[in-house]
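User: Modeling request: complex.
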Amino acid sequence: MPDDIIINNDRFTLYLSEEEIQNKVKDLAAQINRDYQNKVPIFIGILNGSFIFFADLIRQVTVDCEVDFLKLSSYGDAKISSGQVRLLKDLNCQVRGRDIIVVEDIIDSGLSIDFMKRLITKENPASFRVVTLLLKKTVAKLDFPIDYVGFEIPPEFVVGYGLDYAQKVRNLRSIFRLAPRESGASSEKD
Ligand code: IMP
Ligand code: MG
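Assistant: Request completed. Predicted assembly structure:
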């Protein structure tokens, strides 16, 4: 896999390698395995972005667990959030009295996870925690803690490992970030 890739005329550079990601996934799962001994949590994946992280994480989980998914939309095909979260697919499981672990690929503005938290906690779960692979801490506006964080990253646009750019490149095994525009280059596309 090259260190630089071009998507829709934008250049992206390697940011987190497959090995770094897989090591982090194992760390996160180890913390969860320790914290949920003798419990049967429900892992709730937020589609689409979290599907690869979710699949890797769950295979490192050794406690009994269940899974479900819900689908939110806020980005469309853009690189910045539209600021509006919509529920595109609801849960199928009973949340009441259960230990819920929401699995996110990335927390950016915090709008999606805030929406999720309100949606789930109103059903009275026994507990509610969040695991995210990536957190853009400087931009996330959150009034609750994120329990398990893989990497804190600067507020840059990243792709790969489930994260898309206009629905593409989710299948990359590593994570890439948007490269800064070279000064003097005529790379304007807007
Ligand atoms: P938030 O609501 O702004 O926190 O954004 C959360 C969702 O937006 C994530 O679950 C991703 O699906 C998407 N997202 C946020 N930042 C990025 C990014 O850098 N690349 C790709 N998708 C992103
Ligand atoms: Mg997402």
